[in-house]
Design a protein that fits this description.
By secondary structure, the protein is an alpha/beta fold. It has a domain at about 90-345 and about 385-415: SGNH hydrolase (Rossmann fold), CATH 3.40.50. Helix content is about 40%, strand content about 10%. The protein contains 15 helices and 10 strands. A hairpin with an 8-residue loop joins strand 1 and strand 2 (about 15). Helix 1 (about 15-35) packs across helix 9 and helix 7 (about 185-205) packs parallel to helix 10 (about 240-260). The longest helix is centred in the C-terminal third of the chain and has 24 residues, at about 295-320. Mean pLDDT is about 85; it is low at about 1-15, about 30-75 and about 420-425. One of its GO terms (molecular function) is hydrolase activity, acting on ester bonds. Belongs to the 'GDSL' lipolytic enzyme family. Keywords: Glycoprotein, Hydrolase, Membrane, Signal, Transmembrane, Transmembrane helix. Pfam families: Lipase_GDSL.
C-alpha cells in the first residue's frame, strides 16, 4: 500500500495516499455541506484543516577541434531580422504569473500548508518524484509556464526552495470561491497576493532585491481556475436555487478581480469550470440522468450555468475596465470533448481512472482505496484518480486552452503575456 508519512524519523502517522485523497475529498464534503450541499467532494484538504498551517550544471565546455573552429569563423553572419528578433526578446520583461485556484492548479500548496509528504506513484511521469500535485505529473499551469519559457510556479506557502521571481501560485486543493467553506477560499488567496505584493515592493523601496518588481506586477498575468468545488455543491441543491447561488459565487469572483485591478493587475486569464458531470468519481458513484456520452446531465447543467454567468461577468468587466484585458476560456468545452470525441485524442476509455481498482472501463470502485490497478505511464488516460487529471490529460487541456480557440476574446495566451491583445476579436 502506497502511503504518506508525517513526522520526523518517519514516526508519525501513515496515511494511504488514495485514502488521503478521499479525506481531502471529504474536506470538500464539509464545504459542500456548509453550502447546504451533499456531495463527498474529491479534494485533499483534511491535512490543511488539521494543520493550517538545478542550477543548470550543463554549461557547455565550448572547446572544439581546429577544423570546427575554422568552420565557425567562416560561418555567415545571421540575418539582420534574426538579430533584431533576439534583441527584442532580450528586451522583453521577465514572465510573471499569479494563479488563484483549487486542486486543478495546486502545485504543492496543500502539501506545504498541511505538512503532507505525498508519496509515489504521484509525480511518477514528469518529475519522477512526488511534488504535492494531485496527479502523476504536471497540472495545466505547469504546461503554461513551460510554454512561456519560465520555471514552474511555486506555491505561496512553500517556503523552502521556492523561487518567486516569476510570481506565485496561491491555489490550494479543496478551495472554493465561497467564503467560510475552505480555509483558503478565493478571498483569502487574494489577500495573500496583496500581502505578497506589499512586501515585495517594500523590499525594493528599502534598496533590497524583492522577488517581483513594480514593473513585474504591472506586466504579470493573473490567472483564475476555481469554482469547481462550489459547483459540485450547487449541483446537489434544488435547481430552483441555482441562479441565486451562482450569482453570489460569481459576485465573489467580481470582487476578487476588482481588488487585483486596484493593485495594478491588468491582464486576466479566467478559466470556466470543466465538465464536472464527466468526472469518473461522479459518473460511477452517483445516480441520475446520464447524457448521450455517459456524463451526469444535472451536474453538467450546473457547470454550464456557472460558466455562462462567469463569461458574462468577464464581458461586463472588460467593458468597464477599459485598460484591462480580461480573457475567459471555456474549459467545459475542452474537457467535455475528451469524452464526447475521445477517439480523436487516442483515448479508448474516456471514464477510465489511472490510479484505481477494477480495470476498464472505469477502474474505480467506491470505497476501495489504493492503486491496485495502475495504468502504464505512457497510457492515454485522462483521469488520474477519478477527479484530477493525469499529466497526459493536463497536457491536452493546456494546449487547447492556450490556443485561444476556446477563449473570448480569441487571444493566444502567449500574445497576452507579451502585449498586444487589445485588437483581438470578441468572437
Amino acid at each position: 500500500m502506497v502511503g504518506a508519512t508525517n513526522g520526523a524519523n518517519g514516526g508519525g502517522k501513515v496515511i494511504s495516499l488514495p485514502l488521503q485523497y478521499f479525506c481531502v475529498l471529504a474536506a470538500a464534503v464539509v464545504a459542500v455541506m456548509v453550502l447546504s450541499l451533499a456531495f463527498m467532494s474529491p479534494a485533499a484538504m483534511v491535512a490543511v484543516r488539521q494543520n493550517l498551517g538545478s542550477v543548470a550544471a550543463g554549461a557547455s565546455a565550448g572547446s572544439s577541434s581546429n577544423s570546427s573552429s575554422g568552420a565557425e569563423l567562416a560561418a555567415p553572419a545571421p540575418p539582420a531580422a534574426a538579430v533584431k528578433g533576439k534583441e527584442q526578446e532580450r528586451q522583453r520583461p521577465p514572465v510573471v504569473l499569479f494563479n488563484f485556484g483549487d486542486s486543478n492548479s495546486d502545485t504543492g500548496g496543500v502539501a506545504a500548508a498541511g505538512g503532507i509528504r505525498i508519496m509515489p506513484p504521484e509525480g511518477r511521469t514528469y518529475f519522477r518524484r512526488p511534488t504535492g500535485r494531485l496527479s502523476d505529473g504536471r497540472v495545466i499551469i505547469d504546461f503554461i509556464c513551460e510554454s512561456l519559457g519560465t520555471h514552474e510556479l511555486n506555491p505561496y506557502l512553500k517556503g523552502i526552495g521556492s523561487d518567486y521571481s516569476n510570481g506565485a501560485n496561491f491555489a490550494m486543493a479543496g478551495s472554493t470561491v465561497s467564503h467560510g467553506v475552505s480555509p483558503y477560499s478565493l478571498n483569502v488567496q487574494v489577500d495573500q497576493f496583496v500581502y505578497f505584493r506589499h512586501r515585495s515592493l517594500e523590499m525594493f523601496e528599502r534598496g533590497l532585491k524583492g522577488p517581483v518588481s513594480k514593473e513585474g506586477f504591472e506586466n504579470a498575468l493573473y490567472m483564475m481556475d476555481i469554482g469547481h468545488n462550489d459547483m459540485v455543491g450547487v449541483a446537489h441543491t434544488p435547481s430552483d436555487q441555482w441562479d441565486k447561488k451562482i450569482t453570489e459565487i460569481v459576485g465573489e469572483v467580481r470582487k476578487a478581480i476588482s481588488i487585483l485591478y486596484d493593485n495594478g493587475a491588468r491582464k486576466f486569464w479566467i478559466h470556466g469550470t470543466g465538465a464536472l458531470g464527466c468526472l469518473p468519481a461522479l459518473v460511477v458513484q452517483e445516480k441520475g440522468e446520464h447524457d448521450a456520452h455517459g456524463c451526469l446531465a444535472s451536474v453538467n447543467r450546473a457547470a454550464k450555468a456557472y460558466n455562462k454567468k462567469l463569461s458574462q461577468l468577464c464581458d461586463d468587466m472588460r467593458f468597464h475596465l477599459k485598460d484591462a484585458t480580461i480573457v475567459y476560456t471555456d474549459m467545459f468545452a475542452i474537457k467535455y470533448d475528451f469524452v464526447a470525441n475521445h477517439t480523436k485524442y487516442g483515448i479508448e476509455w474516456p471514464f477510465m481512472v489511472c490510479c484505481g481498482n477494477g480495470g476498464p472501463p472505469y477502474n474505480f470502485k467506491p470505497g476501495k482505496f489504493g492503486c491496485g490497478d495502475l495504468c502504464p505511464p505512457e497510457a492515454k488516460v485522462v483521469s488520474w484518480d477519478g477527479v484530477h487529471f493525469t499529466d497526459f490529460g493536463s497536457g491536452l487541456a493546456a494546449k487547447l486552452a492556450m490556443s485561444g480557440e476556446y477563449s473570448k476574446p480569441r487571444v493566444k495566451l502567449a500574445s497576452l503575456i507579451h502585449g498586444g491583445s487589445k485588437k483581438a476579436s470578441d468572437s
